[in-house]
Write a structure and sequence with these properties.
The complex is a heterodimer of chains A (about 300) and B (about 270). Chain A has about 300 residues and is mainly alpha-helical. Helices cover about 75% and strands about 0% of the residues of chain A. Chain A has a two-stranded antiparallel ribbon with strand order 1-2. In chain A, a hairpin with an 8-residue loop joins strand 1 (about 45) and strand 2. In chain A, helix 4 (about 70-105) packs antiparallel against helix 10 (about 205-230), helix 10 (about 205-230) packs antiparallel against helix 13 (about 270-300) and helix 12 (about 255-265) packs antiparallel against helix 13. Chain A is globular and about 75 Å long. Chain B is mainly α and about 270 residues long. Helices cover about 80% and strands about 0% of the residues of chain B. Chain B contains 15 helices and no strands. The longest helix of chain B has about 30 residues, at about 60-90. The radius of gyration of chain B is 23 Å and the shape is globular. At the A-B interface, helix 2, helix 4, helix 5, helix 6 and helix 7 of A face helix 1, helix 4, helix 5, helix 6 and helix 7 of B. Chain B: Belongs to the binding-protein-dependent transport system permease family. Chain B: Keywords: Cell membrane, Membrane, Transmembrane, Transmembrane helix, Transport. Chain B: This is Carbohydrate ABC transporter permease.
Chain lengths: ~300, ~270
């Protein structure tokens, strides 16, 4: 029976060919992705300082410690604030800009090239640029405010307790806006022209067309952007680490910088892995939630595919 | 008409916030520090090219550049090669365990990088791969695999079956059909993967930061941030010059290959 199934699939020779072809990819995939996940989970159950074999088994203690640790909870909260504010601000602005590009402006092609730039340059470079812009005495932002006579608005942006997280989020919005813009613009272009034409003939105003046609038709795209930003917001490490290292007083600490600190700086590898796994669980829950919401909103509207 | 002008002005405002910080960096990279402190908004009075020379030789950017070139090019070549090979197998041969592997590829797309950092570092340590190019490149090859194999196998599957049929009738073997006939037709997808892999390796900061203990192994992103942290030793000029050195390759490629870039980066994220 088994022999027969194999024959139908092309026999031993083709099976071997397939595995020879797939082997290099599968080798790296298992070595650097599957196996590390197993090790990470095992390590999270031990107390480990990074030297010698794993011996000090502590069970779920690392997880319990993480949940009751206020700096981890704070980092997670900052991560959610970052995610939420970034997603809302960046998507709203991107939607507006995409609509303007969609309506047609002068020189839109040049703008397309320029507006995408912040997404292209290395994140680490953006972080250094913006920490120099935010610099209190010689930084561009305070200098500009000084020139404009708005000295009351000058701040020690990254050092101040009230402005630190906001300043970091600002950079993250600057970075993610171009991506959301391009994706939303692409979604708007795909809207059938007759639909908009018909609405315009019926005398619908620009605002009503946006609200009743363009917005509903781009909701799936917006849900997609939400998933992408959840997955991406853990890349904010570069920005946070270079600009503030999580300070002042942990106010800009996010999950990934917390893991880095506890692991590579304090050598509590077991604990750091437990934290990383908790973050993983949070990401999965959020992505699943969005997928679920999206499916429900779809089936309630109409049984459209995709 | 006036409405269109107003709309253009609004977009222009955003375009300035996108472009000005970058222009600002280029301008300051050509000034002496004294001039940078005094007037940031003016053009340089005298063009100070030695900021670039300082970054390149004194701040070791030549070395970091070499490291980045070696790491990026080998991650690109090997990463793509393994994805193309496996993509063909996944698309054209119904081998045992294919479905399981595919499901795994999709499942890991959401694994956040903090989970992998420490174990991957320890694996490299146990193999003695710390401070080696091989240890740096391996995880990047792996990083290309899940999405790369999925995209490549989709590209191979989209090719009509008659193509390989007629090649077989003409006496072409499996490998020849794959390399001579089918592979050239998937080049658009290969280009997408090239750009994705180039950007993700060239601009990466987290992995080069932790993968090595020896400063001789730094890539430009890490070297650049180290230079920025030492701005009081070298001055601000070389810091700005270093940022330009780090970025200009990426921007140059983006301007030349603009359409491919945008398609690659959006496809990569949307399908991923």
């Amino acid at each position: 029976m088994k022999q027969r199934a194999l024959w139908r699939r092309g026999g031993w020779k083709r099976q071997t060919t397939a595995y020879i072809m797939a082997f290099p990819a599968l080798f790296f995939f298992v070595l650097y992705l599957i196996y590390p996940l197993v090790i990470a989970f095992r390590m999270s159950l031990y107390d480990y300082t990074g030297i010698g074999p794993l011996t000090d088994f502590v069970g779920w203690a690392n997880y319990k410690e993480a949940i009751s640790n206020s700096s981890f909870i704070g980092a997670l909260r900052n991560n959610f604030v970052l995610m939420g504010v970034e997603f809302i601000v960046s998507t709203v602005l991107a939607f507006g800009l995409a609509y303007l590009l969609f309506r047609g402006i002068f020189g839109w092609h040049v703008f397309n090239v320029i507006l995408f730039l912040p997404y292209i340059i290395p994140l680490s470079v953006s972080a250094v640029i913006w920490s120099l812009i935010y610099e209190p005495t010689i930084g561009l932002l305070n200098q500009l405010l000084g020139e404009l006579g708005l000295t009351a608005l000058q701040h020690t942006w990254l050092g101040g307790t009230s402005t630190a997280l906001g300043s970091v989020i600002g950079v993250w919005v600057w970075r993610t806006l171009p991506f959301n813009l391009i994706i939303l613009f692409g979604a708007m272009i795909k809207i059938p022209g007759e639909l908009l034409e018909a609405a315009r003939i019926d005398g619908a105003s620009g605002m009503r067309i946006v609200r009743n046609i363009i917005f509903p038709l781009t909701i799936p795209t917006i849900a997609l952007l939400a998933v992408i930003s959840i997955a991406n917001d853990f890349r904010a490490f570069d920005i946070v680490w270079i600009m503030t290292q999580g300070g002042p007083a942990g106010l800009t600490e996010i999950a990934s910088s917390f893991v880095y600190k506890v692991g590579f700086q304090e050598n509590h590898y077991g604990y750091a892995n437990a934290v990383a796994f908790l973050v993983f669980v949070v990401v999965i829950v959020f992505v699943a939630l969005i997928a679920l919401l999206q499916r429900r909103s779809f089936s309630s509207e109409k049984g459209e595919s995709r | 008409m006036i409405k269109r002008l107003v709309m253009t002005l609004v977009v222009l405002l955003f375009a300035i916030t996108s472009l000005y910080p970058l222009l600002w960096v280029v301008l300051q990279s050509l000034k002496r520090d004294a001039e940078f402190f005094a007037s940031q908004f003016s053009l340089p009075r005298e063009w100070v090219w030695h900021n670039y020379a300082d970054a390149w030789s004194k701040a070791n950017f030549a070395l970091y550049y070499k490291n980045t070139l070696i790491i990026t090019s080998s991650s690109l070549i090997f990463g793509l090669a393994v994805c193309i090979l496996a993509g063909y197998a996944f698309a054209k041969i119904d081998f045992v365990g294919r479905k399981t592997w595919q499901a795994l590829f999709v499942a890991v797309l959401f694994v956040p990088s903090p989970v992998l950092l420490m174990p991957v570092f320890f694996i490299n340590r146990d193999f003695g791969l710390i401070n080696t190019y091989m240890g740096m490149v391996g995880p990047y090859i792996c990083g290309a695999v899940p999405l790369g194999v999925l995209l490549m196998s989709a590209a191979f599957r989209a090719l009509p079956g008659e193509l390989s049929e007629s090649a077989r009738i003409d006496g072409c073997g499996e490998w020849r059909t794959f390399i001579k006939i089918l592979f050239p037709l998937t080049l658009p997808t290969v280009a997408t993967l090239c750009i994705l892999q180039f950007i993700s390796v060239w601009t990466d900061y987290m992995w080069p930061l932790i993968a090595n203990t020896d400063p001789k192994m730094y890539t430009i992103t890490v070297g650049m941030t180290q230079l920025a942290a030492k701005k009081f030793v070298f001055g601000y000029g070389p810091v700005f010059a270093g940022m330009v050195i780090t970025t200009f390759v990426v921007i140059l490629l983006y301007i030349v290959l603009q359409r491919y870039f945008v398609r690659a980066l959006t496809d990569g994220a949307v399908k991923g």
